[in-house]
């Protein structure tokens, strides 16, 4: 209990709160700009955390993640373009509200429900993660390997449009993680004589290249092609404040009438978020769909119903905390943001997995405290800065995107202080561009790359224990269960998948 | 997408075979002392055999079991995209060289100016000011404020 209280108290230092505030501010601003998203912002921001302590660093990145999650709703509501994929369902009612002159009301409801959903899932995370980790501690290497295999195949099978291509991307990620010194005997593997490769492929160069640079290249190409083809820029509605006060505020009665929906969506989002690979886009759709089904006036959904905004935002934001349940307890990231956060934890000397609560308990409870604080800061900054963030989305992207590309270069360089990392980053940027176009999931690739060393170690230990007597594996029911689930998930998802599961890669 | 899948799967099979028969035997010692349970080569071999197998499966499936009459007009990477990719690769490589041999204060303005131009901005003043001010600000932020040296 002392560790928990000491950890929670750490979050309330001025420095940590300032870092969280900065993170939330950056997150909302980046999330609001169409084409930019949370994982991209986190990956570019990781190098900025090198001068911070572990807690401030992770709290800063978590702040970005939370801010970006709400930021996506701003452009979704105001210009009908979701800042990120998870805000697609927010456009259904958010934009019609703006068309009715109630843009500020829609944004405020999005903010309140987003913060509520996020807070709800953080509480679940705090209650569930440690017991989950204790349970995970009872697992041996065989169970851990089987679990990793299941998580990877499950994620690979869910993201993208093709199970086979998802699996290819995941196994390529595993392969790439074997580059560098072998963890057992320090044997150099595929280093091609490059000293920089002996520590393996730089995680940040890979993440910045594949997540940020490749996405920006696609955005730049869109503008380049539209200019060549003579297409004009689409007109966007300008954010205006209505003269009627009730169009600009969410009254208590309105908030209360949406409360059941907000709670329902928060539960849906938390459950979806805790399962690796499902993602916040799906949560948003499911939360919105459930609200529509439960409503007495479903025909009003899509016409500018405040409840629709609340349902979508609470659900997609509730995945933020829940994603960290498998990340912290098992070392298996639930989505891209969690994967980048996992990488940041490793860079700052924390090894996610069942032992993290024993080895770094104070820091982890500090992180939990920071997450709770970040929700309130998100509420205050989001509320106070709505007009500023609405202005941010009007910034011309022909100036924003090139500057972000330069930040990718600087971010990748400061990680290793090596030009080699820049070459890697550019290489991965181009590979990521091609993978996105050909629908090979970069989500599966990155998560597999991060999980690779842990998976190989678990396989090695399993081989040591069971290599000569594989029959003994039959006495490990949990491992057998995960092996069976792996086979079933591949078979099931290769047969048919609901279209809603097909997330953008 | 069918044609793109066939080409990408074929390239992956070729890449897999190259790695299995050339790269791993040459660049991963097979029988180093101290390996316990798994040899250093095992994980690279295992993963690349799986990749090659899956790519072969994708290739065969697309070639023989998913014949489609639909035209491939909506190719995932049309010709213009290949042109863009070639152009942007040249720009990125030029930036890398500038950063390596001159520094971020040469590479930064170069890439920012070129990308702004590619995205359609034609006002020289706007391009000039942004491509000078932004790299300077980033350089000052990293090097002067955070004390992280940049190239």
Task: Please give a structural write-up.
The complex is a heterodimer of chains A (505) and B (151). With 505 residues, chain A is an all-alpha fold. Chain A is 71% helix and 1% strand. In chain A, helix 3 (38-45) packs across helix 9 (203-228). With 151 residues, chain B is mainly α. Helix content of chain B is 73%, strand content 0%. In chain B, helix 1 packs antiparallel against helix 2 (42-65) and helix 4 (104-118) runs antiparallel to helix 5 (124-145). Chain B is flat, with a radius of gyration of 23 Å. Classes of the chains: A mainly alpha (505), B mainly alpha (151).
Key features?
heterodimer; A: 505 residues; two-stranded antiparallel sheet; 22 helices; 2 strands; 71% helix; globular; B: 151 residues; 2 domains; 73% helix; flat
Strand content of chain B: under 5%
Count of DSSP H/I helices of chain B: 5
Cα-based radius of gyration of chain A, to the nearest Å? 22 Å
Head-to-tail CA distance between termini of chain B: 41 Å
SSE-based structural type of chain B:
mainly alpha
The share of residues in helices of chain B is: over 70%
- Our Rg estimate of chain B from Cα atoms comes to 23 Å
What average pLDDT do the residues of chain B reach?
Answer: 87
Query: Class by helix and strand content of chain A?
Result: mainly alpha
